[in-house]
User: Fold this.
Amino acid sequence: MDHFHAQRQRLHSLFGVFFSPEVTTALLELARPALALGAEGEATVRLGGTPVLPVGEEWPVVAGRPLDFLGAVDFGEIAALGAVPWLPGKGVAAFYGGAGCRVFVGEMREAQRPEGAAAYPSCPLGAKPFLSVPSPQEPALRRLDAAYSGCLPLYEQLHAAWAQHAWPDDAPMHQIGGWPVLARDPEGPQATESGWRLLLQLDSDGRLGWDWDGSGRVYFCVRENAPVNSACLTAQGQRRRATNV
Assistant:
């Protein structure tokens, strides 16, 4: 896609100013296609708002507590962008989280929120393609720093600058596909080098009343070649280490 070609050229120029051609090439090979969710975009993803469930499905409950409806993604709409090739080409997924998680896929209907489930305001966001690069905490960057000593501190600054390009004005870093934006070392499903893929990343967001573990993020991740409704949920925040939820 043309937008990825332009972004790859921009990344090449950015890295090329500070790194050798060998390091620049290695970094570009790590880039993954993704969708940044924000104020602009050619498709719409809805976070919060009126909950939906597939016809015939009951509201998910874990350990006696109803999960919270977090949002819905229309894969058919975002497939038109051609950004994340491994995602389903059609269908709607509804994401639920809290004491556990469930991802439902199917023909959706509006659902009645039960007592005890949190209600979040509707927040429609645009989805735009972008090239996702690994967080400095990823093992791939540690290996690169071991091979080319001293590149990691500078990469940390460039990674932050690229994130500002994808989410300007300190916007919440909501994302579909690509590398997770991490606060610390990846654990469990967040380790997307070990057979996991990032399906949906949800940032803390004051508009929705979300504050994950102290200004952190939650990640719906799925095994490679597994259906999206098998996703699990993990979190990283400022108050504690990464945890499965």
Remarks:
- The chain has five helices and 15 strands.
- Helices lie at 2-18, 21-30, 75-79, 139-147, 151-166.
- The longest strand covers residues 123-132.
- The first helix runs from residue 2 to 18.
